[in-house]
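Researcher: Let's try something more involved. This one mixes different molecule types, so please make sure each is placed in the same coordinate frame as the others.
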Amino acid sequence: MDQTTLQRTFYGALALMTLVLFGIGLASAGAEGLAFGLFAAMTLGGALVCIWERSVVRSAFALMATFMGIAGFFILLESDFLAMAQILIYVGGILALILFGVMLTPPDMGERRLSRVLSGLVLVGGATAWVGAKVAATASWAVMGAPGDGREKGAITSAERIGVGFLAIDQYVVAFELAAVVLTVALVAAVYIARRKKADLQPPPGVPKAPEAVERGGIA
Amino acid sequence: MGLGAYVAVSAALFALGIVAIVTRRNVLYILMGIEMILNAANINFVAFSRFGGYLDPENGGLDGQMFAIFTIILAAAEAAVALAIVLNVFYLFDSVKPSDADLMRE
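Model: All components are placed in one shared frame. Result:
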């Protein structure tokens, strides 16, 4: 099968999966289910395209659909603050960082082996389906109740509650400060590691490729 | 949609992240797979706390969201450090394949 047919088959199957998810959502929960189907299609379709595509740039942009779909799930789960943070940090920060890394590395179009990807999908998918069937047979989630049970739906926004939780001394303030320290240390360390030091770039003897890399200076 | 639907989507996303890590020979795909796995865990945190949150109406559904926020914070830190390491590996070995970084093998 040549490359064009392969791409058409894959994206056709993806469109079919989207329609099936829409149908399942609409049939089981009406409008909310339709939104759920849309977000599920974005999440899983983005991840599938990310694995499938040969170019890293396309994969990174497909991952954006995944992150957006997960932000949609957070909105459906009444976690509006988390949805905002997801878009800000993942789409605006981490994805930009990955694209930055993509631009510093050479393209390698022959890296994706179809046999490896397909066998990986089948093996991991089969294992997940098996575990999922076991879990679905034994777990009793019905006791946890349906959405909106026991409290007003959307009475207080989650941003307000999270803000209070962060500032209240007996809730999350210690974890909040700890996270701030961890983030500061990690980012300072990342800048220090990524900084190019001429002395450190001298390779140990016996590394064949390194002299070219140093001569070229890694990046321009 | 019930809790089971969210858990199913999360499990599928987790599996796709594992596939991305296992099948691709490029550090950037491994990073993307890790992000997928962390996001799958986040969906589970929020969904379980949302659907089980009625047990504590005062604080309904907040614990899982806090877990998710700290996961996102650590994911940001992890992505920054991992990218710095990838850049260094690329300077040294002129490659982004994990199997090429074999200085200790000798």
